[in-house]
């Protein structure tokens, strides 16, 4: 892209004010309706990935804190929550949804400061969808008999929930809302690099007057999560995170009667046929992998383009990539924010080196990068072989591999040749071709002529090493229920 064309895309800075959120110096655990200090007295620091400045300190919960939280959740389940009418439960969840909505601007800014994601994404996607999940499941609370006619659905008890760092509040909403709607109580742990919005949510839920012990937050690291998983009085574990940790959890729960849902990694295929609307497809490819820094489990990280249009698609894609603005997550014009942590930034760099060593051709957008912070340019790899590590392993960054194909059978085989199966995208003008392909893809969610579209009413979840169980929609109620 010429200098002149690049200038067309330069905007004056338009940052959202960070003053809308009053970040405290320290955040405590939330157990039994009270904000309490961790029993070890330990706190860990949370940093803003955009400028590496310290944001606040977060309580580091241990086994003892988890035990207190589970005991509080059990007591609340036995004495209050399971006794309450389902309509009353629904009212609480509606109240939480409305209060989140009232504080949505604050939540969006906090999410961007804490995670590095763009304000456009947190303001337009994460926070509205999180609120909508509460609204949606509030509606189901008193309709469970209708949802499962003749099956007498019953709550399980205490749900232990572990959240990743890529969609901190949204993933929390995906788990908390159906758990409460089905009559369970909750012990939840945010990811160590992104605890802030969970801490604000605890304040909202406290203000909403949810009975003490129904909702508890124990923040911390992996050992805190393991303490929740291994606590003998937890009835269900819901985990979203890496496949490696998912496997540890599954092993830990083998032989117990705890219910488990796992939403793990992905290496999703985005397939473009030669009859696709190419400009829309290019926009879908960009949306699928580059927005949110590629920190999306279902990111369309493997692009398959029909051979006869590959050159044209790659040219258009490079042109579009050059227009993407990488920078301040709080700026409304920013397309790609900061990589969530230094550790993740280094992991991505390691994969770039692997890709080059494997012989693939790398292209990076010539965009300007801020001098400080974990920023990187959107990256393409061409001449990628199916067996290459960069085409097989989840990178979790703004890195796209491109492969070509000639026939439908070939692309289905290539797309399915992955240990993962979370999502996929298909771009074609022909409806019958779309149905043919989507029905043969081994992926939990398949989008046609769009990508990364979410709705609380639509179930989400994986095949193979992407996990099992569904979140969202009526299906999302099932993991929190037992049936006579
Ligand atoms: P990532 O590698 O993408 O950071 P992880 O799977 O490590 O993803 O983290 C997802 C969540 O799981 C985080 O909240 C993290 O603290 C938690 N976690 C990490 N290790 C364990 C473990 N052994 N048991 C339970 N939770 C864990």
**Globular, elongated, flat, extended or rod-shaped: what is the shape?**
globular
Beta-strand percentage?
Answer: 15-25%
What ligand molecules are bound, each kind once? adenosine-5'-diphosphate
Strand order of the largest sheet: 14-15-16-13-12-18-19
> What is the C-level CATH assignment of the largest domain?
Alpha Beta
- How many structural domains does the protein architecture include? 2
Under the CATH scheme, the architecture of the largest domain is: 3-Layer(aba) Sandwich
Rg over CA atoms, rounded to whole Å, is 22 Å
Looking at CATH, which topology of the largest domain would you report? Aldehyde Dehydrogenase, Chain A, domain 1
Biggest beta sheet summary: 7 strands, mixed
Could you characterize what this model shows?
The protein is an alpha/beta fold and 484 residues long. The protein folds into 2 domains: 265 residues, Aldehyde Dehydrogenase, Chain A, domain 1 (3-Layer(aba) Sandwich); 180 residues, Aldehyde Dehydrogenase, Chain A, domain 2 (3-Layer(aba) Sandwich), CATH 3.40.309. The protein is 39% helix and 18% strand. It is built from 16 helices and 22 strands. The chain has a 7-stranded mixed beta sheet with strand order 14-15-16-13-12-18-19, sandwiched between helices. Strands 9-8-7-10-11-21 form a 6-stranded mixed beta sheet, sandwiched between helices. The protein is globular. The protein starts with a helix and ends with a strand. The protein binds adenosine-5'-diphosphate. The site of adenosine-5'-diphosphate has 17 residues, from helix 9 and helix 10.
